[in-house]
């Protein structure tokens, strides 16, 4: 079946064929997820010249969602259990079984969840032209860290491409819904685990040959629950009638409770306990780089060990480095407001600006109205 017009119509997307044009046979689902792959990694395909032929193919032959977000850091696709209940077999290894079961008439959801964006020490690193986000220091250590991250994202793309090639050789690609996305946020200080775009904005592309119009791009805001609605509709597991493509609510971690509302122009965050350290407490005494590299509890336990974190902590005492470390780790005000169109990295908090008073009040009211709904 084609993707449901009731769902995608709300996103302004056209279908390649009328509803029912595809076979009534339920499609396979190939879910390709890279832990730690953020929108910045996706955006870098153009800015850094990343070699991601699989991602590019899915963009060409499917629908690209340029404003896809996870409603909470590290959120999972919330429809796997419903697909199991509707008759799907779920697997994450032995891809040959994926093909065999489909041949036997049983639809299958196969999940490739790659950890490749978590850097390996032996990764092939290209540091020639890394674009360093303005909330990280532009140092050789950070450039090397970004280069390692870039290398691993390319490796994930290669792994995904091998699975798609095997589907194609087996003649099964035409009845497979392919979803390629990321989760967990940019695995650097002020990225993963935060409600800034670096922590929640993810790449997302959906391909379903003959069921989705190829080459479509949408800038509508969508979340992981919206992706679940699309998957459930195309598989016939459940019908979801609407998608809120204008605003949605984000939630923070248990250790640092916070909530945010994201619109096409603004990100508004309410931090429940501004007296807490958002990335964990700083070290009480000096720690060695070796310990920082291996022990998450050494300092700022909310940030996973990585060369960038180590470089920022070791570099304390330099005013420029201190400012960037504070952006990632210092206590935050109760309210944060960012104009994402003019401030894409959310560095300039406008919440206290008199000119933004009405906008803060409106977004605060919207956020309060969602309390208990997410």
Structure report:
The protein has helices at 5-8, 39-47, 53-61, 80-85, 95-103, 140-169, 197-200, 224-235, 289-294, 307-314, 319-329, 357-369; strands at 28-35, 63-69, 89-91, 108-114, 176-183, 201-202, 204-207, 216-223, 248-251, 258-262, 266-271, 335-339. It has 374 residues and is α/β, with parallel strands linked by helices. Mean pLDDT is 82; it is low at 1-21 and 241-245. The longest helix has 30 residues, at 140-169. It contains 12 helices and 12 strands. The chain has 2 domains: 5-244, Alkaline Phosphatase, subunit A (3-Layer(aba) Sandwich); 250-369, no CATH class. Strand 3 (89-91), helix 5 and strand 4 form a beta-alpha-beta unit.
Outline = globular
Share in β-strands: 15-25%
List how many beta strands DSSP finds: 12
Helix percentage: 25-40%
Q: Radius of gyration from the CA trace?
A: 21 Å
Extract low-pLDDT stretches: 1-21, 241-245
Kindly provide the name of the CATH class of the largest domain. Answer: Alpha Beta
Order of helices and strands: HEHHEHEHEHEHEEEHEEEHHHEH
- Give the termini distance in whole angstroms: 30 Å
What is the third-level CATH name, the topology of the largest domain? Alkaline Phosphatase, subunit A
Mean pLDDT: 82
How many domains, in number, for the residues?
A: 2
The CATH architecture of the largest domain: 3-Layer(aba) Sandwich
What's the name of the CATH homologous superfamily of the largest domain? Alkaline Phosphatase, subunit A
Structural class: alpha/beta
How would a textbook summarize the main sheet? 8 strands, mixed
Number of helices: 12
